[in-house]
Design a protein that fits this description.
about 290 residues; alpha+beta; 6-stranded antiparallel beta barrel; 6 helices; about 35% helix; about 25% strand
Amino acid sequence: MHNLLQLIVRYSNFLLLLGLEVVAFVFVVHGNKYQQVAASGAANVVTGSIQLAHDNVTSYFHLRADNAQLLEENARLNAEILELQNGQTRKRDVNDTLSTRNREPLSSEEVPYIRADLDYSFIPARVIAFSEDRHHNYITLNKGSRDGVTPDMGVIGKDGIVGVVQSVSTHFAVVAPVIHEGIYISAMIRKNDYMATLHWHAPGIRHAALEDVARHVDVRLGDTIVTSGLSAIFPADVPVGVVSDVSLGEGDSYYDIDVALATDFNSLRTVHILNYAHRNELDSIQ
């Protein structure tokens, strides 16, 4: 308090001058019609500028919501097109399907590597958080239990496999991606259907190892690796990556194989969460 009083005393002359100028300005404006109009116009300009800046900021922060709405609408329109194209093999009424199901049929435009006749549907989601520098990386999505998401659902992107849903809250889901040391993906070499296991090791996020490939198997650089379809999490033939390195030591029983992953996690922004229509039935008998 003492310091404040000292500051006021020190600048008393300046503060007095400033106060007198404010009083003089008020008298001038209120005593002259022209000054009143000019002051009012200046105030309107300032107020309008502030309001415009506020609207611009508000519109910017609404872009995410608008993009999410466009994503949902795109999925819905693609679903209607897919239903019409497959009307002979899937005898369903489009309007009835869309009104009774929360999940959309897979779109051939969004995920062209999944056949339309498979009993999978998807929930489009946006990536809102992502880690890449851990042994157990994660991806957080903006869809949760209220959208029909449950643990153990597969997650794919436009280029291929992304990961598996680990935990779910009302509005969000956490995904263990392929680049997670606790995740093992059942994969196969497309050209000969040889089954193997994809497993990632830190730190690089663009490559993973294809394990359990015996030395008698024909595997070469450039071979395409896809999912095997042995579980309800992913259908078969979802792109995993391409063989980028192969080595076999003398006396080794299995290859050392490096796979360049199909998904670029650094540029991943939107994904599709997969749901298998007969998952509960399959789980009940296994």
